[in-house]
From TrEMBL:
The lineage of its organism: Bacteria, Bacillati, Actinomycetota, Actinomycetes, Kitasatosporales. Keywords: Coiled coil. This is Uncharacterized protein. It comes from Streptomyces coeruleorubidus. Residues 94-121 form a coiled coil. It comes from the Bacteria. Pfam families: DUF6907.
Length: 123
């Protein structure tokens, strides 16, 4: 499903077919031209849990989908921010990253269980 929205390209009014997952308000998007605009999905963040030390203002993990208008090489899953991030440009890269996240999650769960045992012994 797509949404048709009013926007401006090179200061001229136009309409754009926008996928339903896009969160950009293209009516406020200062596009340079039809060759240079993109759709962006909602950002998903993983912050540090409440009470963790230290607390960071920025999330530990963040990601969003980007679909460039005319350049498939710029369609990707953006991981992290521009200072410390990377783009997943292929399904294979996304699958490999997901596999790494699953291993990471399993390792954190194991550490959590060990911590629970330590805390139980300390009580």
């Amino acid at each position: 499903m797509s949404i048709t929205t009013a926007g401006r390209i090179a200061s001229a009014p136009t309409t754009v077919d926008c996928p339903a997952w896009c969160v950009i308000d293209h009516s406020e998007d200062p596009w340079i031209g039809t060759e240079d605009f993109f759709h962006r999905g909602e950002e998903v963040n993983v912050p540090a849990p409440p009470g963790a030390r230290p607390q960071y203002a920025e999330p530990l993990l963040s990601t969003h989908l980007v679909d460039h208008s005319n350049n498939p090489e710029w369609s990707c899953i953006a991981i992290g921010n521009s200072d410390r991030g990377f783009d997943l440009e292929t399904i294979e890269q996304a699958d490999a990253y997901l596999a790494q996240l699953k291993k990471y999650t399993a390792a954190v769960e194991e550490m959590r269980n060990r911590l629970a045992a330590i805390k139980e012994n300390q009580a």
